[in-house]
Design brief:
It is a single chain. The chain is of the alpha+beta class and about 325 residues long. The protein contains 15 helices and five strands. The longest helix is centred in the middle third of the chain and has 29 residues, at about 175-200. It is elongated and about 80 Å long.
Length: about 325
């Protein structure tokens, strides 16, 4: 996990350019899926931290929509000045977390994290959590912040702000790294599901195409050729090629390669499985072909992808237990 970096002023790339219309639709499907809602409930209830899934480029304040949104952040978002800063933080997280997880610190000292959800080489959304302190805040920090943001605050309203500020969750860096590893693993599973949704999103779903996709999913780890699938759906090779490309906007070869790459990414979560073993288990016939295809669809080598994979070792599990107990 990257160390938190302070928010700084500067030009921010247009996040709308980071996602496609298809990706936006897939994120919408995932947000409503039982898989995500169940994971969100388990994550929030067990760790006491907010979790949202949002599409790339959506102009929303950080963690908006979670029932566990930090109460102090909610107070800050009500002021125009601080709301603009929150939105800037949101954009900066997006810009920096296009490839790997990033944790940033806002002007109030709270840390927020974006975990990218990528399909092939494309970013489609983020898992986000945070609004926590990595070190216990001090009275001096609060009064400095209050003087900069709301110097006129007095009485009950000041006590309300102060209470919310000091009730913010404090988690050590090691513990927070364990939390982020959980989300990085979940993002890989979401990417696999997203890939299937993207492949079917544009499909004019005739029974033959639906059957073809099911056949490919069941046999993609075997040596599979175009003729096998065309025969399975009772179509000529020529007509199947044309129909399949029209429905999925991918050639059979492209579709199969994407499906196998997503399988490899899931298999590589097993630390005891070698990269070559994962490649052959997913259906690739040669390592040179596998390396070429994997890099084409992910933008990195299998080895670099493996090196970035989070591992839930015994120390990480201890840190997660500490987060739950805090």
């Amino acid at each position: 996990m990257a160390l938190p970096q302070p928010l700084v002023d500067g030009a921010i790339a247009n996040p709308a350019a980071l996602h496609s219309r298809a990706g936006s639709s897939v994120i919408a499907h995932l947000q409503q899926s039982k898989l995500f809602r169940d994971y969100q409930t388990a994550f929030e209830s067990s760790l006491g931290l907010p979790l949202v899934l949002r599409e790339a480029g959506s102009f929303r304040t950080p963690l908006q929509g979670s029932k566990l949104m930090n109460s102090f952040c909610a107070l800050l978002s009500q002021a125009n000045k601080t709301c603009a800063s929150c939105l800037q933080l949101q954009q900066r997280v997006e810009v920096l977390a296009t490839v790997e997880t990033k944790t940033l610190q806002c002007y109030a000292g709270l840390s927020e994290t974006g975990v990218p959800v990528r399909v092939g080489g494309n970013l489609i959304g983020y898992l986000q959590t945070g609004q926590i302190f990595l070190k216990a805040p001090t009275k001096k920090q609060f009064h400095t912040l209050k003087a900069a943001l709301q110097p006129e605050l007095t009485g009950p309203e000041l006590r309300r702000w102060k209470s919310a500020y000091f009730q913010t969750r404090v988690i050590t860096g090691k513990q927070y790294e364990a939390v982020i590893r959980l989300l990085e693993i979940f993002s890989i599973h979401l990417a696999s599901i997203s890939n299937q949704l993207l492949l079917t999103e544009n499909a004019a779903e005739s029974p033959a195409i639906t059957k073809a996709r099911s056949y490919i999913a069941a046999h993609q780890n075997q040596e599979l050729c175009l003729g096998n699938v065309a025969h399975a759906v009772h179509m000529s090779v020529f007509y199947f090629c044309k129909s399949f490309k029209h429905a999925t906007r991918l050639t059979f070869t492209e579709y199969l390669a994407r499906a196998r790459v997503e399988s490899v990414k899931l298999l590589l979560l097993n630390p005891h499985l070698r990269v070559s073993e994962a490649a052959y288990a997913a259906g690739f016939q040669s390592l040179s072909q596998f390396n070429r295809v994997f890099r084409r669809y992910t933008g990195e080598t299998p080895v670099s992808f493996r090196d970035r994979l989070p591992q839930l070792n015994s120390k990480t599990k201890q840190n997660l237990t500490a987060v739950r107990a805090a």
